[in-house]
Amino acid sequence: MSFRISFAPPADDTLAKMRGGESFRDEMARTLGEEPYGHASSAVKSERDRREATVSGAIVLYYVSRSVLTVTVVRLVPLP
Fold this sequence. Notes:
The chain is α+β, with helices and mostly antiparallel strands and 80 residues long. Helix content is 24%, strand content 40%. The protein has two helices and five strands, in the order βααββββ. It has helices at residues 9-17, 21-30, and strands at residues 4-7, 42-44, 47-55, 58-65, 70-77. The protein has a five-stranded mixed beta sheet with strand order 1-5-4-3-2. A hairpin with a 4-residue loop joins strand 4 and strand 5. This is DUF4258 domain-containing protein.
């Protein structure tokens, strides 16, 4: 079961400025899109669906919606 990856406006703006943005999107789909609770992610403030993970060297803060199979990236912090 795959999850759709969605980017909130602030994360989308950061993604647009990232070098290798398309390969990052592909890696997101391959990792968090397939298993949003895996990939060494951790719950934020004990909320199971509010998570943080590192993907391709970028810190990703995201929410998981199991009812509509969507991962929404709300904050993205790439390595300098």
